[in-house]
Every structure is written in C-alpha cells, then in structure tokens.
Specification:
This protein is an alpha/beta fold. The protein has helices at about 10-30, 45-60, 105-120, 145-155, 170-180, 210, 240-255; strands at about 65, 75, 85-90, 130-135, 195-200, 225-230, 275-279. β6, α7 and β7 (about 275-279) form a beta-alpha-beta unit. The chain starts with 7 loop residues before the first helix and ends with a strand.
Length: about 280
C-alpha cells in the first residue's frame, strides 16, 4: 500500500484544502430558489444545479459519479481492485428554507476534499471510497423526511412516492421529471455487504463545542424525528400558524440544551418534531 504523505508539504495542502472547502461552500450556496437566502428543496432546479456542480467536483477528485433512483448523487473510487465494499462519506444537499450554508453541504464537500487529498493512495486502499450527497434529508418540499438515506437503507415505504408538495406535485412525478433516474426506487437500496460503514462530518447545531472550546466532537446518540398531521376545521383560524408558535415555545422550554445535562427534556412533555396542518 502506498504511504500517505505526512510532511510539511501535506500540511500546506491541508491548509489549501480548507480554503477550497470554504470557497466551494460559498459557490454551492448560490444554487438557491430564494433571492438573498439559501433555500434548496428536493428535486427542484436548484437541487439539480447543485448536484451538477458537486458531480464536477467529484470527478476532479477521481470519483466516478452516478445518481440513484432517489436522486442521491454518489461518487466512487474503487480502491485496490474493483468490487470492494465501500466506506461511505457524505451528507445531504437539500436545505430548509433560509438555511445556513454549512448544514449538509459541509459534509459533502469535505468528503470530496478528503478523497482528493488522498490522491493516488486512494487507489491502493483495501476498500472503496464513496461520497454520497443525499437528495432529501430535511423533508421540506414533501411531508416525508430522510427520503435519500431511507432509500439507500432499503427502508423507504413506496407509498411515500404518492405524497404531494404544496403545488400538488407527487414525489414520483418530481422524480420522473428530475432527470435520467432509474425508475425503480427500490434499486437505490444497498446490500449491507457492499458497505463498510458511513461517516458524516456535520456542523454542530448547538453551543456545546464552542462552549467547551473543542474543534470537533464525536456523536454518540441522535434524536428521533416523527411527523404528525393535524387537520384544520374549515371554520378554524390558521391552525398551522398557531401550532408553529406552540412548537417554538415547546422547543424553547423543553429542548434547549444545557451544558452538562444529559437529557434536557427529562421530566417534560415531548414536543412534536414536525406538524403539517391540512384543510
């Protein structure tokens, strides 16, 4: 196996890599449906443009690219021989409305940069490297979150394809018009023996690392998400607006993290993660 360079020159390359990551984050943030803000929803024009830009960067890093049936962009570098199981790196390309530019995008771009820094040494590894840019994590356009990763895990319920966005467009129709994607959503699922593991770099959306003056942390647990639908009576006021206000209050009271407190929500009612109000 080729020795990965460990020298002052490599440190200089790493510094340049950091600058390149920052520049690419700025460029990726221009692919947005909102003027003066970052909003990039699943299976939209801004998603397509972002995916093309990221595919170009993947190719520059020596990755062979494809897009699966769920709209996930995947770049692969084979390692020492063809067909090896892969260590998968990455995150998601979609955003919430008026998003931060690091959420999701950092994990994708940093993974591409890591493969680029490995250079030819990546071709001698006893495993493949894959960088994945999930099409949907946030679940903003359609009332179904984590569509990209659930498709890869093989846990996506096909009935999700029938959910519609606020314009009445079904997810299956959006997939059909997004590009030249495989028609069977089930084909996005990966067999466990084709993957060694998954690693994601993500910005912390909280105060702990900053307060502890730590540059990085390792996630040991994740929060679960649920979706609930509440139907609004025709004579009722804007229930969705009122519910959102209640949710914000719940989050302020029940989910604000406290340093040193392992369960900030202990002893309180559990707030909803997402609420959709339907007529």
């Amino acid at each position: 196996m080729a020795r990965i360079e460990d020298s002052p020159a490599r440190m200089l390359r790493a510094g340049a890599a950091g600058s390149r990551i920052a520049e690419r984050l700025d460029r990726l943030a221009t692919h947005s449906a909102a003027e003066g803000a970052l909003t990039r929803l699943y299976l939209t024009g801004s998603h397509r443009a972002a995916a093309q830009t990221v595919a170009d960067w993947m190719a520059e890093a020596g990755l062979t690219t494809r897009m699966d049936a769920a709209g996930n962009l995947i770049g692969r570098r084979d390692g020492a021989r063809h067909g090896l199981p892969a260590l998968m790196l990455g995150s998601h390309l979609d955003t919430v409305r008026d998003a931060g530019r690091y959420d999701g995008a950092l994990g994708v771009i940093a993974a591409i940069e890591a493969v680029s820094l490995l250079g030819d040494a990546a071709d001698t590894l006893p495993f493949a490297l894959e960088v994945i840019a999930f099409g949907d994590e946030e679940g903003v356009r359609f009332p179904a979150a984590l569509t990209g990763s659930r498709a890869v895990a093989g846990t996506l319920d096909p009935s999700v394809l029938d959910v519609t966005d606020e314009d009445g467009i079904a997810m299956r129709d959006a997939l059909a018009t997004f590009g030249d994607l495989p028609p069977d959503i089930g084909s996005a699922a990966r067999r466990p023996d084709t993957l060694l593991g998954y690693l994601e770099l993500h910005i912390e959306q909280g105060p702990v690392l900053e307060a502890e003056e730590l540059p990085v942390g390792i996630v040991t647990a994740i929060a679960g998400a649920e979706r609930h639908v509440r139907r609004r009576p025709a004579s009722a006021p804007d229930t969705q607006f009122a519910a959102r206000g209640a949710l914000r209050a719940d989050r302020r009271q029940g989910l604000r993290p406290h340093l040193g407190q392992r369960d900030p929500g202990a002893g309180r009612h559990r707030p909803l993660d997402v609420l959709h109000a339907l007529p």
